[in-house]
Design a protein that fits this description.
Structural class of chain B: mainly alpha
Strand order of the largest sheet of chain B: 1-3-2
Strand content of chain A: under 5%
Order of helices and strands of chain B: HHHHHHHHHHHHHHHHHHHHEHHEE
Number of strands of chain B: 3
Strand order of the largest sheet of chain A: 1-3-2
Largest interface: A-B, 53 and 60 residues
Shape of chain A: elongated
Keywords (chain B): Proteasome
InterPro entries (chain A): SAC3/GANP/THP3, SAC3/GANP/THP3_conserved
Organism (chain B): Abeliophyllum distichum
Protein name (chain B): Proteasome family protein
Distance between the termini of chain B: 61 Å
Structural class of chain A: mainly alpha
Oligomer: heterodimer
Helix content of chain A: 40-55%
Radius of gyration of chain A: 25 Å
Protein name (chain A): SAC3/GANP/Nin1/mts3/eIF-3 p25 family
């Protein structure tokens, strides 16, 4: 029994060699997170009930229920003490070879196979919630965000792993996922180069979460980077109720402005309507859109009539000095015309390919967003 | 349908079938063999056979006793079982029978596949294709049945992996490989139905890059189906030149009598053609019942942005489900060619000044179409249009766009609007 489930959840592509076995596995490489059970209730009204777009796993195998009462299983704790494999936050009095049950947190293990897993190594949902509370509380400590972030990133991944292994889909679990996603969004905002959760993981989270579509936005805009599936394919499967939700409609509008190159509305609507979390997700694209705006103005302008930067900076919602720097970043020329700084038009076509992440980000001038950032809700 | 059949008659029916089977095999008659295996076809001869099996109950004995057919017992036993189950479904709606059916077929058709591997030439290919088809159809129906009683539908997924195995059998040197495209198309249908479209990639890669496959060698019908599905995949990837090529290929090879097929192709081809500036006539839309595109086309002709957005909203579900929504959304860029109309009107009034258009005028025109945009946004849009070469001209800081005297609105000429 555990055998079949383990095989489904491993990273391997399994070939069904024996022709007499009656359990057939599909040929896609299975990711431990994608095969978690998705609740088959009628909470989602799908667009076409006949099409049965949702993919489900057989429900006849009983779920593993963890029994480990600590944040870290006893065996792992002893092993890591021996190997001196303890993170800074796990060390008792700074001792790299000693930890305690209140400090050690289970690590994420990439090669885990549910074949050999013991219930005593897996934490039940209540323990996982306590662990998550503990981890997110660390954010309030004085440590450098970067250092804390890596630790929390890894340990929350382990929490998700435990949730998946036990096939938990309760509201409690969903709430935990939401908090973890929030953490990722905000940490991504603060540390643009930090790792982000696997796209597939996020995708599954979205399908589960009915209400908060912040993460859906995250996915929808960053999909051009996604290797697995195109946005159109994904839209086919999103339940109707979510498609029509306020957040999703906002996301789709922003996406439309982005795809059409309507830089004015993209920036304007973000500033006026995005929640802080939504803004965090959109932020990386603002530079790209601004750069596009510059190239457009540059290309379509008249060389004897340079474009005043003041007006442009209002349009792009940035400080004029920042705009000047952005012009330089984009390889465009500015000058002064007596009244103020202006952008020269040179009909450049070669450099006109704004790439994501290529340009430094300059703050969006917005009282509203500043206020929201200060009011940032508890994780 | 005879509900009652005498034992003698039943025995005769069964023996008759076995004779036909062994004859088909020994004379390498692919067509006949396929007909004998088309379980879901509900042909009258198969229905009679099913009745006979139900009457006689111990058909296996007959198989074993038959000189010619006992060697094919491995194949025949499950076929009989499958046929009986299928027939029972008609009478008793028993999901159990259906549920076991695909697994039965898969378990024991593996043996058949083994046999097939040994048969020299590819004459049994047609039969194999029928089996592939039957497996998919039966799995689909079994899943429906399962879903309706609240159980997990997983048979189609299993059918998918089984057919991958079949594909493997065919993807080797030798004349059998010609059947690989048919199985590929069955796989496409399964993956599209399940929504696991990304699984198509590996099969496509095998077909398109493996040196053993020569695309032109495949039967026309299979090529046509293949191009249709791969064309649809390209729509998702917004790869318009490829989509146009593949779907047009399918369209030109489709029999004009198969209206349903043409409609399916057009459903995906039209958005792509719209994107490259080619508009279908209303006659076409009416003929193939694609009226959801009518307002889209009208909006493009009029330059009416509001109508376009409304048309998209009206059929939002349909467009989202078929995956063309985002393609259609991008047509907004073309609709801004409303500016061209303004240009034409101005030309009539004063040809000398026609190429200078005040942005305010565009704002007003948009207001007539109930679109509320300020001058900044119009300026933004105009500069995007110029940047993407949909319009040729210069934007002055005095909020006027001066169109190029020559060809200010270049034809798209089959080239997609660059993103």
């Amino acid at each position: 029994m555990a055998d079949r489930r383990g095989q489904r959840q491993r990273h391997m592509i399994t070939r069904n060699n024996s022709s007499s076995s009656s359990s057939f596995k599909s040929h896609r490489p299975s990711n431990p997170n994608t095969n978690a059970k998705i609740t088959r209730t009628n909470k989602f009204a799908t667009v076409n009930p006949d099409n049965n777009d949702n993919i489900d796993d057989p429900q006849d195998i009983p779920n593993l229920v963890g029994t480990c009462p600590f944040m870290c299983p006893v065996e792992e704790r002893a092993r890591r003490e021996r190997l001196r494999d303890l993170a800074v936050f796990e060390r008792l009095h700074g001792n790299p070879a000693k930890t305690s049950s209140t400090l050690a947190v289970k690590k994420f293990c990439r090669t885990i196979s549910t074949n050999n897993v013991q219930a005593s190594d897996v934490r039940p949902v209540t323990v996982l919630e306590d662990t998550l509370n503990y981890l997110l509380n660390l954010l309030k400590s004085d440590c450098h965000f970067e250092v804390v972030h890596d630790f929390i990133f890894d340990r929350t991944r382990s929490i998700r792993q435990d949730l998946t292994m036990q096939n938990v889909t309760s509201d409690q679990a969903i709430h935990m996922y939401e908090r973890m996603v929030k953490f990722h969004i905000i940490s991504h905002h603060r540390l643009p180069n930090c790792g982000s959760p696997n796209q597939i993981e996020l995708h599954i989270l979205f399908i589960r979460m009915k209400q908060n579509s912040i993460h859906i936005m995250c996915f929808s805009i960053s999909v051009p980077d996604n290797q697995g599936e195109s946005l159109s394919q994904w839209f086919r499967r999103v339940p109707f109720v979510i498609m029509k939700s306020k957040e999703m409609c906002f996301a789709r509008r922003i996406l439309r402005y982005f795809r059409l190159g309507n830089y004015k509305q993209f920036i304007y609507t973000t500033e006026a309507e995005a929640s802080y979390l939504q803004y965090c997700i959109i932020e990386p694209y603002i530079s790209e859109v601004r750069a596009l705006a510059l190239y457009c103005v540059n290309y379509g302008g008249y060389k004897l009539q340079p474009y005043p930067l003041t007006h442009l900076s209002n349009l792009l919602m940035m400080q004029e000095s920042d705009l000047e720097s952005l012009c330089i970043d984009c390889g465009l020329q500015t000058s002064t015309d007596g009244i103020g700084k202006v952008l020269l038009s040179t009909k450049l076509t070669d450099t006109c390919n704004p790439k994501r992440g290529y340009h430094k980000y300059y703050e969006l001038v917005s009282e509203r967003l500043e206020r929201l950032s200060a009011e940032l809700s508890e994780l | 349908m005879a509900a009652y059949m005498s034992m003698g008659e039943a025995h005769r029916q069964i023996t008759e079938y076995l004779n036909r089977f062994s004859y088909a095999v020994s004379s390498q008659d692919g067509k006949s063999l396929s007909r004998l295996l088309s379980i879901s076809s509900s042909s009258s001869s198969l229905q009679f056979l099913a009745d006979a099996l139900n009457t006689f109950q111990d058909a296996n004995r007959i198989i074993r006793q038959s000189e010619k057919c006992s060697q094919y017992a491995d194949i025949l036993v499950p076929v009989f079982r499958a046929l009986q189950s299928y027939q029972l479904r008609n009478l008793v709606e028993s999901y159990l029978a259906l549920k076991k059916l695909p697994t039965l077929l898969m378990e024991n058709y593996s043996a058949f596949i083994q046999e097939f591997r040994n048969w020299e030439s590819a004459w049994a290919l047609e039969a194999l294709c029928v089996i592939a088809y039957e497996i998919r159809i039966l799995a689909e129906r079994a899943d429906k049945e399962l879903a309706s009683i609240g159980k997990t539908p997983e048979k189609l997924k299993g059918a998918g992996s089984f057919l991958m195995k079949v594909f493997g059998v065919l993807a080797g040197k030798g004349p059998k490989r010609v059947g690989a495209l048919y199985v590929t198309c069955q796989l496409f249908k399964i993956y599209f139905k399940l929504g696991t479209v990304h699984l198509c990639r590996s099969v496509i890669r095998s077909i398109e890059t493996a040196r053993i496959f020569e695309f032109e060698e495949f039967p026309v019908r299979d090529k046509f189906t293949y191009m249709y599905y791969t064309g649809r995949l390209e729509v998702y990837n917004e790869n318009f030149p490829a989509t146009d090529h593949k779907l047009s290929y399918a369209l030109t090879r489709c029999s004009p009598l198969k209206e349903a097929n043409i409609r399916m192709i057009l459903k995906y081809l039209i958005p792509v053609k719209l994107s490259i500036g080619i508009l279908p006539r209303n006659l076409l839309l009416d003929k193939y019942n694609l009226t959801e595109y009518k307002n889209v086309v009208l909006a493009l002709k009029r330059g009416d942005l509001r109508l376009l957005r409304h048309a998209l909203e009206e059929h939002e579900d349909r467009f989202l489900r078929s995956g063309v929504y985002l393609v259609l959304e991008k047509l907004e860029l073309q609709v801004y060619r409303l500016i061209k109309k303004i240009y034409i009107i101005q030309k009539q009034k004063d040809p000398n000044k026609a190429h200078q258009i005040k942005l305010e005028v565009i704002v007003k025109a948009l207001k007539w179409f109930e679109m509320d945009m300020d001058v900044d946004e119009v300026e933004c849009i105009v500069s995007i249009l110029i940047y993407k070469n949909l319009m040729k001209g210069i934007l002055l800081t005095s909020k006027v766009v001066v169109l190029s005297k020559q060809d200010p609105f270049p034809k798209l000429n089959g080239k997609p609007v660059t993103s």
